[in-house]
Amino acid sequence: MNFNQLTLVGFIGRDAETKTLKSGRPVTKFSVATKESWKAANGEWQEATEWCQIVGYGEGFAKLADRLLKGKHVLVQGRLHTDSYDREVEATHKNKSIKVTVKQTVVECIADTIRLLDRKAKDDEQSPDEPEASE
Asked: Which CATH architecture has domain 6-37+45-81+107-118?
């Protein structure tokens, strides 16, 4: 049995952007930062931040995109997806410009569910829960 499930709770690093694929299906993308803290052998606290690119396909995510803003607290559930492609870059070696092909690997979360965790302001609707998108 195989199982590919990813759950992230973190903060949005850049506002979501929605584009339409050639098929007409919308795709929404943004990044999420998660933090890990631990006490090192010397007794000092250490902290590391990990970034994950989030991809949500469909109308539900597109409708939520205007609320997926930098700094918002969010829960994302989905699956891990890795893609590789060749990218041409220009480099300089001994004052000579050359083009080099570099293998680029992208690791992202294909979202099944996105839920905003921030509470609404008192002036907003009475419900303290933010909306959720699922596909």
From this structure: Beta Barrel (2.40)
